[in-house]
Design a protein that fits this description.
By secondary structure, the protein is mainly alpha-helical. The chain has 6 helices and no strands. Helix 3 packs across helix 4 and helix 3 crosses helix 5.
Length: 154
Amino acid sequence: MNRFHKLDKMTSTRCAVCKYFRRRCPPDCIFAPYFPHNDPQKLTCVHRFYGASNIGKMLEEMPVHLRADAVDSLYYEAKCRIQDPVYGCVGIISSLHQQIQIAQSQLAKAQAELSFLDANLAAAEPTPSHSEPLVQPNGVINHGLDDPLNTWFY
């Protein structure tokens, strides 16, 4: 029973790459920080498209501070390629770009309508001069809300 406990302990400390290839995980394993043993799906996706040896070469060639982002990018690209084998990430980026263009045109249209309504409102209502009292003779403040011709809220 003690023998199985040691074996289980050894397999749980290996990174996903070393587990996949059934090899011992060295203390300075380049894959260990980026492919933990508890996330084998990450390795499966990335290995399917790029291959473990290519990933290792890429990681060795790039600065340490960029490696985590590179692995995350490779994983995201691989997942997108699995979901959409033809377009992958480009399909998602194109869709988001199109949504941004639609939102920008809707925003421009709404801003144009607001400008148009503001211009019509300014032309239709004369601005009160400083000589006109805001308080009516009976002491009530007139905000112009009771005027049926005032369509400021439409």
